[in-house]
Amino acid sequence: MEARRSTSAVWEVAYHIVWCPKCRKTLPESALKTLRTSLYSIAEAREWSIKFIEVMPDHVHLFIEAPPTESPTGIVKVLKGTTAKVLFERHSALRTMFEHGHIWSPSYYLGTVGHVSAETVRRYIQEQRQRTVGRPRKDRISSPQQVEGSPCEKAS
């Protein structure tokens, strides 16, 4: 990561954000393409920088840089709220899959880059395609801290 500048600050703030649809339902391929495009559009409009992204059928991994004036919770609310609206507008079939107009689970994971290196987060996100869809099992990597070579990995 490279330090960014504004009129009053120099900063390096990045987040690893993960969220999933309600009940871990899988989204259709066409909706995944819309979701990816929508995330890039939101980031561009807000002057955020998406470093790495992996849109899976049942969850989203995002490594994003944002100015320190943006709260992490605010970033998540904008991303989840705007993408839900866009997905429902462009994919009406999703309305039957998700009752009451709620596509995303209210929970999410948020990690700041610093407790693990940016390289570890990047590798973790890239390795998501090799994982099977579904909830993490004990024998499966479920967080960047478990990636081999992570500074947080416990010595055996």
Characterise this structure:
The protein contains four helices and six strands; from the N terminus they run βββαββααβα. It has 156 residues and is α+β, with helices and mostly antiparallel strands. The protein has a single domain (4-146), classed as Alpha-Beta Plaits. It has a four-stranded antiparallel beta sheet, with helices on both faces. Strands 1-2 form a two-stranded antiparallel sheet. Strand 4 and strand 5 (60-65) form a beta hairpin. The two termini are 30 Å apart.
Describe the sheet with the most strands: 4 strands, antiparallel
SSE series: EEEHEEHHEH
Number of spatially distinct domains: 1
Uncertain segments: 152-156
Can you summarize this structure?
The protein has 156 residues and is of the alpha+beta class. Helix content is 32%, strand content 17%.
List the topology elements.
Blueprint (H helix, E strand, L loop, with lengths): L3 E2 L4 E2 L2 E6 L9 H18 L2 E7 L4 E6 L6 H19 L3 H4 L11 E4 L5 H9 L30
Antiparallel strand pairs: 1-2, 3-5, 3-6, 4-5
Provide tags for this entry.
single chain, 156 residues, alpha+beta, Alpha-Beta Plaits, two-stranded antiparallel ribbon, globular
